[in-house]
Amino acid sequence: ETGVTQTPRHLVMGMTNKKSLKCEQHLGHNAMYWYKQSAKKPLELMFVYSLEERVENNSVPSRFSPECPNSSHLFLHLHTLQPEDSALYLCASSLTPADTEAFFGQGTRLTVV
Amino acid sequence: GQQVMQIPQYQHVQEGEDFTTYCNSSTTLSNIQWYKQRPGGHPVFLIQLVKSGEVKKQKRLTFQFGEAKKNSSLHITATQTTDVGTYFCAGRGSARQLTFGSGTQLTVLP
User: Fold this and answer.
1) Of A45, A99, A106, the CB nearest to B42
2) In chain B, what's the furthest Cα-to-Cα distance?
3) Nearest to B33, CA basis, from B41, B42, B43
4) 3-state DSSP assignment of residue B102
């Protein structure tokens, strides 16, 4: 248990569905992240939030929409996804956006059908 | 952009043998982190190296940061079945973004 909780753990959705992934941390961290982990590829950083403000957006398609309502919660809203978006989506948090270790949640295994 | 290459991609060892994974960055890093991900699990932080030429040890694990701060290695002495998993390096460059290597998947045969 790392202190970073992600829900749901597994999600199967159709290409026309809208769903949201949730991440929650009560570690007092100021930075939160979304990563995508696909088979045989490096962890891909998608979004970085620092003190609820988005500081990084790594050319992620608009069908992924993040939301950070406060420093403890992070959402990833999904709509009209493609089968190639199937992956493990990992949330992480750290004390600051730089120079500190990241604590990862257990991930949401997403399958797009 | 910054690239972090990690080799080998896969490594099978007999229990008791040593294991090493190598990480190389295309740019100079301000620091490098190492993570371990067990099968079906999530990445867990192991260590961070900051100084040029730094060497840190955690029991049977030895971590090194190169003099030029562009490469790093993780060496495990006398592997055990509990060492099974994927080991990732993650380098932080001038843009402050953490870039992960592709990982080395370690299998330890009993």
Assistant:
1) A106
2) 43
3) B43
4) coil
Residues of chain B with pLDDT below 70 are: 95
State which H helix or E strand residue A110 sits in: strand A108-112
Tens of pLDDT along A91-106?
999 998 876 899 999 9
DSSP B49-66: E-STT-EEEETTEEEEE-
What does the block give as tokens for A26? Answer: 């009560």
**What residues in A contact B24, CB-CB < 8 Å?**
none
- Asked if the C-beta of A45 comes within 8 angstroms of chain B's C-beta atoms, the answer is yes
Pairing of strands B104-109, B10-14: parallel
> What are the residues whose beta carbons fall under 8 Å from the beta carbon of B3, sequence distance 6 or more?
B25, B26, B99
What's residue A65's pLDDT?
95
